[in-house]
Amino acid sequence: MTTHTDAASRLTAGALRLVEARTTQPRSVDFSGYVRQMTAHCPYLAPSVERGLTGWTVYEAAGEADAVEAELFWAGSRAAEWVRPLASRLHGALVCENVVLLGGGRDLTGWPHWALKNLYAPVGVMFGKFHAGEEEVAQDGRSIPAAPVSFIPVRPAVRRRDPRFLHDTPDLADALAVASDDGRDVFEHLPHDWKAVRAWSRTKLPPVPRKQ
């Protein structure tokens, strides 16, 4: 499989400081209580943790916002490329990589998360995002526990389940529903520069509904 995890220009290197390299038991942030609570909302989480298939890489924002965003995009891409070959293996559906961001506001995850979702949906990789201290409500009305820090989870898509979470972005839902990883380079038709990727991601935004 050909990959290009340098799509965020390396001129931004250093804007996102590595606090803790990939681990299944992070020490810089205590996720244990949060993970226990989240198992009630995600049936894949407990078996993933038990098999050591949930990984965490912890970063800290250490530069200007634009540069941090570029580095966050790069980190998310690297996580996706870790997930892709594992997805087809035994228990591959349980693989989950989490890109943790310390010291940054929710705005920093905006375009990187959106660009990554659009790049990787056709090959069946799903991205989420959780913001520190923010409670959300699940589709069934239950409250989702607030995350202790902001992070982007990266995992294989569940084609029978995930598209219905994307009702506001039907193009993404359709791409996930028929996703197949043929080993393609998802950056094949994009310049390897974060500004170009950011501009491209804006062309993928759904149209804003007109007010009646």
Short description:
This protein has helices spanning 32-38, 45-50, 65-87, 110-120, 170-177, 194-202, and strands spanning 16-23, 54-61, 96-102, 125-127, 136-137, 143-144, 150-156. With 212 residues, the chain is of the alpha+beta class. The strands form 2 sheets. A 5-stranded mixed β-sheet has the order 1-2-3-7-4.
Order of helices and strands: EHHEHEHEEEEHH
Shape: globular
Helix content: 25-40%
Question: What integer value in Å does the Rg equal?
Answer: 17 Å
What's the number of helices?
Answer: 6
Calculate the mean pLDDT score and round it. 89
Distance between the termini: 48 Å
Strand order, sheet with most strands: 1-2-3-7-4
Q: Estimate the strand proportion.
A: 15-25%
**Number of extended strands:** 7
Short descriptors:
single chain, 212 residues, alpha+beta, five-stranded mixed β-sheet, 6 helices, 7 strands
Outline the structure in words.
- The chain is α+β, with helices and mostly antiparallel strands and 212 residues long.
- The protein is 30% helix and 17% strand.
- The protein has helices at residues 32-38, 45-50, 65-87, 110-120, 170-177, 194-202, and strands spanning 16-23, 54-61, 96-102, 125-127, 136-137, 143-144, 150-156.
- Strands 1-2-3-7-4 form a five-stranded mixed sheet.
- Helix 4 (110-120) packs across helix 6.
- The N and C termini lie far apart (48 Å).
- 39% of the residues are buried.
- The model has no long low-confidence stretch (mean pLDDT 89).
